[in-house]
Amino acid sequence: MKIAIPVDNNSMDSSVCISFGRAPYLLIYDTETEGSNFLDNSAAASQGGAGIKAAQNIVDSGAEAIITPRCGENAAEVLKAAEIKLYKNTNNSIRDNIESFKEGKLSLLDDIHPGFHQHGGK
Amino acid sequence: MKIAVLSGKGGTGKTLVSVNLAAVALDSVYIDCDVEEPNGHLFFQPKDLQKERVTVKLPQADPELCTGCRTCVNFCKFNALAYIKNKLIVFNEVCHSCGGCLLFCPQKAISEKEREIGLIQSGISGNVRVVSGMMNIGEVSGVPIIKKLLQDSRKENKNVFLDCPPGSACMVMESIKDADYCILVAEPTVFGVHNLEMVYELVRIFQKPFGVVLNKCLEEENPAEDFCLQNQITILEKIPFDLELGTMHSNGQIAVRKHPKYKELFLNLLKTVSKEARHETASDT
Ligand code: SF4
Ligand code: SF4
């Protein structure tokens, strides 16, 4: 099964990125083959809707689960429609989180924030 | 002449200044661009109300025609579209209604539907035509409403007073785009200076002629005034801190219609502003 993690760098020694939509890279990790693939998150630089685009990229990668510290409302809607499960990371290490995931120790992410909209003038 | 009244945050006296200026001018239009919390109409209590819906266009895909090519998803710069499980999802609040996806869909699968985001209400209060933009609750951006307000105001040849949204974000920029002159309202505190600086930056970026009205002035030190002096900013008027004025305002009364003292103060301000604005236009040429 493939899982996705927003990460700060394109290396397994990198850490989980605190942002989902604006993470520089998205790690797609295959739990069976243990292969890892780092996608450039093309959404990171976009003006708005970064979460939506990042979520679309993850869906397109074929991942079935995501480990992330947080997720915006819109992105969550995309992931829900794609039936991708969201898990909350326990710490910053990619490897630790993958291990915890394999052992079924991660809990589902329920903290979905309303998103930071640049427009609207607030 | 179109005059925009702005301040870095709410409660500074922006509505006090714009409402009273409009009321003291002979024949004028007051436009409330603070679409999230319009309250100018509470003072004017306009009659003969007319309401007009403001809508934006939203794309929708016909699942029968859509082949899932994702041309639209890739095109949308605002990332308002996602294609998931053979279905196009449109994020209403993210969509800017640019119509691009509709143009670029090779299957002609996208059509537009209207969605109401707010309304514009206008009416008459004595010498003032009062126009207010009101954004529906839960909407993210009032920019389309402000655009519509300003479009309508372009037809006016009377003096127009724009009560801008607080702050300095998109909606404020939209509001001051066609103003001939900007009045910045500031409070005499350190926070007041901070808020003033925000709008000061903005009017400079937009290269608008402007001046400051210092509100709630006491005899004591006034950091906002110091800021103006340091930066050679024109001080148009100093409105004294005055319980009577505050009470009238919080009771929804228009000071210039109640009290000759304030009528004189705002008439003076209007004169100063007109002179400043004319001076600016003259030196442009
Ligand atoms: S109308 Fe424009 S902003 Fe809205 S979804 Fe289509 S391309 Fe994106
Ligand atoms: S461009 Fe048209 S056909 Fe292609 S995914 Fe979008 S709606 Fe469907």
UniProtKB/TrEMBL annotation, chain A:
<dbReference type="Pfam" id="PF02579">
    <property type="entry name" value="Nitro_FeMo-Co"/>
</dbReference>
<dbReference type="InterPro" id="IPR033913">
    <property type="entry name" value="MTH1175_dom"/>
</dbReference>
<protein>
    <submittedName>
        <fullName>Dinitrogenase iron-molybdenum cofactor biosynthesis protein</fullName>
    </submittedName>
</protein>
<feature type="domain" description="Dinitrogenase iron-molybdenum cofactor biosynthesis">
    <location>
        <begin position="13"/>
        <end position="102"/>
    </location>
</feature>
<dbReference type="InterPro" id="IPR036105">
    <property type="entry name" value="DiNase_FeMo-co_biosyn_sf"/>
</dbReference>
<dbReference type="InterPro" id="IPR003731">
    <property type="entry name" value="Di-Nase_FeMo-co_biosynth"/>
</dbReference>
From TrEMBL, chain B:
<dbReference type="GO" id="GO:0046872">
    <property type="term" value="F:metal ion binding"/>
</dbReference>
<dbReference type="InterPro" id="IPR017900">
    <property type="entry name" value="4Fe4S_Fe_S_CS"/>
</dbReference>
<keyword id="KW-0411">Iron-sulfur</keyword>
<dbReference type="Pfam" id="PF01656">
    <property type="entry name" value="CbiA"/>
</dbReference>
<keyword id="KW-0408">Iron</keyword>
<protein>
    <submittedName>
        <fullName>ATPase</fullName>
    </submittedName>
</protein>
<keyword id="KW-0479">Metal-binding</keyword>
<dbReference type="Pfam" id="PF00037">
    <property type="entry name" value="Fer4"/>
</dbReference>
<dbReference type="InterPro" id="IPR017896">
    <property type="entry name" value="4Fe4S_Fe-S-bd"/>
</dbReference>
<feature type="domain" description="4Fe-4S ferredoxin-type">
    <location>
        <begin position="87"/>
        <end position="115"/>
    </location>
</feature>
<dbReference type="InterPro" id="IPR027417">
    <property type="entry name" value="P-loop_NTPase"/>
</dbReference>
<dbReference type="GO" id="GO:0051536">
    <property type="term" value="F:iron-sulfur cluster binding"/>
</dbReference>
<dbReference type="InterPro" id="IPR002586">
    <property type="entry name" value="CobQ/CobB/MinD/ParA_Nub-bd_dom"/>
</dbReference>
<feature type="domain" description="4Fe-4S ferredoxin-type">
    <location>
        <begin position="57"/>
        <end position="86"/>
    </location>
</feature>
